[in-house]
Amino acid sequence: MTLIRTSLLALVLVLAACAPVPQRAGIPTTWQGSPNFNERKPNFVVMHHTSDDSVDQALRTLSDPARSVSAHYLVGRDGAIIQLVDERARAWHAGESKWGADTDINSASLGIELDNNGREAFPDAQIAALLRLLADIRERYHIPVANFLGHADVAPRRKTDPSGYFPWKTLADHGFGLWCDPPFPEPPPAFDATAALRALGYDTGNPEAAIRAFTLHFLPDELSPALTERSRGLLYCLYQKAAG
Ligand SMILES: [Zn+2]
């Protein structure tokens, strides 16, 4: 009898491992399963630089239980791509973050780390590999062009990655992220820059931090917590693109 009970218990455990128990409401409800569903899918891609000097160093950090950080992909300086987390799972790359009304970017995104210490250019081989990876991701998930973002975009008070060396224009040329080339239009007198930043998605709880993140992404030569005439024109251009 004990043997049968043990076998049954083993069988139950095996079955439980194969088919995880559904996540249910915290209040009593009736379960009536539908076959019409699939995995939740990412709708944003967030890019980072590791701030490390090598892939090995970054891998140690991104796999250390004590650090509680990870990303779906790590792209080396030579263009080699390492995957660390299943795309269906929630990697811990964005931390406390916000874009538009979305306050849980980790749940809605894939995170890509680039092996880069933050004080150097990104090699061509690395960006070529990133573009291939982004194209593959976009094809599978149909991620909107405006939803390819940097960590600083979604966490402007805390983060400054990827750095001003990151080639956002090259990405935009391939359809990843919004972009405007100069000359920038002159905004109307009533143009509200803070409202425009918010409309793009920036958390404007700290307007200076939002402007700094915006200029880091779109006009790093004019990285500043205050808008200039030029960066205001750029913001107006992007605002029109996002609205159109
Ligand atoms: Zn980051």
Could you describe the 3D structure shown?
The chain has 244 residues and is of the alpha/beta class. The chain contains nine helices and five strands; from the N terminus they run αβαββαβαβααααα. A five-stranded mixed β-sheet has the order 3-2-4-1-5, sandwiched between helices. Helix 7 crosses helix 9 (229-243). It is globular. It starts with a helix and ends with a helix. The mean pLDDT is 94. The structure holds zinc ion (ZN).
List the topology elements.
Layout: H1 2-18, E1 44-49, H2 55-62, E2 73-75, E3 81-83, H3 105-108, E4 109-114, H4 124-141, E5 148-150, H5 151-154, H6 168-173, H7 193-200, H8 207-218, H9 229-243
Helix pairs in contact: 7-9
The structure holds zinc ion.
For the biggest β-sheet, the strand order reads 3-2-4-1-5
Helicity level: 25-40%
What letter string, H or E per element, gives the SSE order? Answer: HEHEEHEHEHHHHH
* Proportion of residues in β-strands: 5-15%
Q: For the record, give the distance between the C-alpha atoms at the N and C termini, rounded to a whole number.
A: 71 Å
Backbone CA Rg: 22 Å
- The number of helical runs is 9
| Ligand inventory | zinc ion
Largest sheet: 5 strands, mixed
Query: What's the overall geometry?
Result: globular
Mean pLDDT: 94
